[in-house]
Structure formats: C-alpha cells, structure tokens
Amino acid sequence: MVRVGFGYDVHRLTEGRELWLGGVLIPHTVGALGHSDADVLLHAVCDALLGAVALGDIGFHFPDTDQRWKGADSKVLLKAVVDLLHERGWEVGNVDATLVLERPKIMPHVPAMRATMAPLLHVGEDAVSIKATTNEKMGFVGREEGVCAYAVALVQRRA
Ligand code: MG
Asked: What residues does the ion ligand 1 have nearby, CB within 5 Å?
C-alpha cells in the first residue's frame, strides 16, 4: 500500500540571516527569515510526508509559538516527522522537490543536500530528487524577496 503527499513552503529573504536549504548552509548575501532555521526545502518535504499519511502539517506539529522550535535545526523536524511515520507503520519511498529562487545557483549544493537528507529519510540518495529553477525575475521570488519550495513524497507500508 502506497500513499502520496504534497508540500509547499515559502520564506522571506532578508539580510542578517543564514540560508539553509535541504539541511545545508548555502553561502549567500541574504538568508531566510523564520522561527526555525527557515529551511524551506525541508519544510516542504515535511509537509509532503505528513500529507501522505494525513497527519496535519508542520505548523501543527511544530508551532512557531513554541519556544522549543525557535532557531530549530529543520533536520530535527524532518527526523521527528519520519519517526512519526515509522511509528504509524509507514516508511518513505521517495521524495521529489523543486526549489524556486533567483540566486544563488543551487546545483553545486544538490549532492550535499541529498547526502544530508537521505539518511534522515532512511532511503538511498537515489530516492531523493532535488531540482531548482528561478522564477524568471517575476513576482516576489523574482524580486528576491523570498524563496519557495514544492515537494511530493511517496510513502509505503513497512514490511
Ligand atoms: Mg517554513
């Protein structure tokens, strides 16, 4: 038995913040604003996984009113989501995600992101797809005011 889930997230870009994407610190002039480390890619993946098993969303499980998650490493959130799936008898099949931002170039960082995410998801790196596109200078992403991410995840019943 398999299930599919979808996730979307967006964060504002601002000076004085770090840019964490896919669990990797990306050198850049601006970073993502948020209660946690604002890793938009990991948040979208968390929501895709939660969506696949209809267990709510990341805001429900890790509310930004909770001081525990202030400045939180989103890898900890992803691990908690995967643990939750395992407890409910599910395991991750694969994840496919797309980042949307104008700068910097993401492709050089994709191998590190996949290597970081695969063990958290308990899958091989070949089951973690990360793609990136610009928004062709249109809209809030085009003006470099924000970064967004989309993800789908397949989960399956544990053997
Ligand atoms: Mg978020």
From this structure: 9, 43
